[in-house]
Design a protein that fits this description.
mainly beta, eleven-stranded mixed beta sheet, 15 strands, elongated
Amino acid sequence: MKSFKKSLILASMVAAYISAGAQNTYSGYFLDNYTYRYEMNPAFGNSKGFVSMPVIGNFNTAIRGTLHLSDIFYKSPDGGKTMLFTNPEISVSEAMGKFGNRNKIGTNNKINLLSVGFKGFGGFNTLTVSASANLEASLPKAFFSLAKEGISNKTYDIHNMFAYANAYASVALNHSRDIKQVPGLRVGASLKFLVGVGNVDIRFNEADLTLGENGWTARTNADIYASVTGLRFEKDTYTPSGTNGGAPREYVSGANLDDGFGINGYGLGFDLGAEYKWNGIRFSAAVLDLCL
């Protein structure tokens, strides 16, 4: 591996086609012998060819947010076991003191189903088949209070809650080569064929939940935007009681996937990258996930 002091990242720009970040081991950017560096900059090539084992050859997952693991998991007083914040041994005041008004969490996951790299066509080439799934969510403090307190004859306001999730597969072709006319310069590009599985965006504009011993009531107003092949919303009719209740009105009562999952669309994506070596210093720049 080259000395870290002789590696200088000039720029690394990401234009993501999803709101979540890319799923890569960023520390691998600085390792010359890291096989999958081309996913972070398509200009990077390998000294020899490779074939990865399906699925376990390369798996990346990232979790981020405003919550810490210690906010969710606690050690028992005797230190013998780990338990959730909902455990009765954890007081309500202690547990709820860890949560803010907005608690954000996100996860990105990418599995390389197959990766092949080889020299040819004047440079280094890779073929990668992968699957990705991403989630972004914001949960209000009342959501955790509901989980902690349970049925307590109390109304919980969880209106400022949202969640976004998507999943897709891709087939990526990458080529990188040295530019002989400019010593020290190497460029690369990736062409990605994208296959959408689905995406869901849920936002609660209003959500008041009252949980009591004899019954639960809920007043909600939410927007749900979903693009999933086979997904069907179920509707029902609500008839208000009393003379001043108003006219009957329809509402969404559920959803089902009777038709099963399917392909949810296609797309194209591009990665562009360059690397320049000068007097032992390495400059690199990349633009990732430009999509059509």
